[in-house]
Each structure stands twice: as C-alpha cells, then as structure tokens.
Design a protein that fits this description.
The protein has one domain. 72% of the residues lie in helices and 0% in strands. It is built from eleven helices and no strands. It is globular.
Length: 266
C-alpha cells in the first residue's frame, strides 16, 4: 500500500471541494439547519415539559451524533460518486492503484468532510443552545469512534451496491441512514420497539451509543461491556464491508460490469 497514492485520492477530493461552492457549502449548511431546528425544538420542549428534565442534551446531542454518522457515511459515498459522475472511475483503476489505496483515500476524504460538519455542529450547539459535552464525559470519544467506524462501513457497503448494479443504483444509498435510524433508537429507548426490531437493533453499533447516552442523562452508569461490544461490532462491520467491496470489484472486472462506468448515463 502506497501512502502517496492514498493521499492522491484524498487530495483530488480536496481540490474538487476547494474549487466549487456547490461542493463546499453542503459540508456545513445542512448540519447548521438541523442543529438550529432541533435546538429550538429542545428549548420549546424544556418550556412546556415538567421541570427538571433537560431536552437539549437528550435531543440535540442525539441529533449531533447521528448527523456526524451521516456525514461520515456520505463522505465516503460522495467521494466515490464524484468519480462516477465524472466518468473517472474506470480511469482510476487503469492505473496501478490498489483497492486498499482507493478505499484509504475515500476514508481520508470522509474524515476531512465529517470533521468540518462536526466542528460546525459543536460550535453552534454549545454557543447558541448551551449543549455541554461534559455531561457525557470522556465517553464522548468512544461514542464518536463507534459512529465513525459504522459510518465508514455503511459508506463502503453503499458504494459496493452501486458498483454491482451500476450508477443508476445510486438511489439505493441515500435512504440507508433513514432505514437504520428506527432500529438505532436515536430518539427513544430500544424497549419501545417490538421484539423483532429489538433483536436487529442489538446488531447495530449505534444502538448501544444512544442507549448509553440515555443512561448517562438518567444518572446511571454506562455498562462498558456494551460499549466494547459496539466497538467490536463496528470493527467487524468495517472488515465485512471491505471484503464485500473487494469481492464486488473483482466480480465487476471479471464480468465486464466495470465498463458501464464509462458508457452508462448516470
């Protein structure tokens, strides 16, 4: 694996974002809208609900973490789609670039773009709405790590689907966070779900993160074995997604499907 080639994939994305307002603004505009909407909603609920419960860390904190997960996933998929939309994907793999180097470049791109969104959300939520992350303590770091790894896994899995079924399958990728959110228990405890949904929730790393947040806000202690299990699941998901991408790419090359990236209209 060549760090130079990996950095080149990342640098290309930076140049694309730097040279286009349409690519730069979405890095922080949508998270700003989300933070503003849920911030004022949390303030309203604090006024009308019984005193003693603060909805800001419960709702706004959950929205921030979930938006961070979405930005991580979309950081991977958008970097891939840039190559698809520009009909450049086939050209990239005509070079000595390896699959590992390409995925590494996508992950670096995701880290950069999601960091911008996270920084904007942190500044807005703390300065405008008074969200204090000292409430979560040092556990905020493993929370973000679990969501980051799971976002990378779903991003890689999403581009595998597009690679297998062609550029027209792009619409399969965008609804993924919305489909996952009911099972992740972002805004409600998993106990409210029916048994079959709860069984699936225990296989999703984010569900442990949001259950832990609610436990902290209720004054309880977070079971560390649950967080370790979530971290293990997230790492396993990343490895599985990379294996699926590798298999899909090799299948696309053998079957000639990869040629559609220079011929099929998006």
């Amino acid at each position: 694996m060549s760090p130079t080639r990996t950095a080149a994939i990342f640098l290309r994305q930076i140049y694309l974002i730097k040279g286009s307002v349409a690519r730069f603004l979405p890095l922080f505009v949508w998270v700003t809208v989300d933070m503003t909407l849920w911030g004022f909603m949390s303030r309203y609920l604090n006024r009308v609900a019984s005193p003693g419960y603060n909805f800001v860390p419960a709702l706004l904190g959950a929205v921030l973490l979930w938006d961070f997960f979405i930005r991580v996933m979309q950081g991977v998929t958008m970097a891939f789609f840039e190559d698809v939309w520009s009909r450049n994907f086939l050209n990239i793999f005509a070079t000595p670039l390896s699959i590992t180097e390409y995925i590494g470049g996508l992950v670096l791109s995701s880290i950069a773009t999601s960091s911008v969104g996270l920084l904007v959300m942190l500044l807005l939520s703390t300065t405008v709405f008074g969200l204090s992350f000292f409430t979560y303590g040092v556990l905020l770091v493993p929370f973000l790590l679990v969501l980051f790894l799971f976002g990378i896994a779903l991003g890689i899995l999403g581009i595998s689907v597009v690679m297998r079924y062609g550029p027209a399958a792009e619409w399969f990728v965008w609804p993924i966070p919305a489909l996952v959110s009911p099972f992740a228990g972002v805004f409600y405890p998993l106990s409210t779900l029916p048994p079959w949904m709860r069984a699936l929730s225990y296989l999703l790393p984010p569900s442990y993160v949001f259950e832990s947040i609610r436990t902290i806000l209720a004054g309880g202690s977070v079971p560390m074995e649950g967080l370790l299990w979530a971290l293990g699941l997230a790492v396993a998901d990343v490895l599985l997604a990379c294996a699926v991408f590798t298999w899909t790419y090799r299948y696309a090359v053998r079957a000639g499907l990869i040629a559609r990236y220079s011929a099929e209209s998006v």
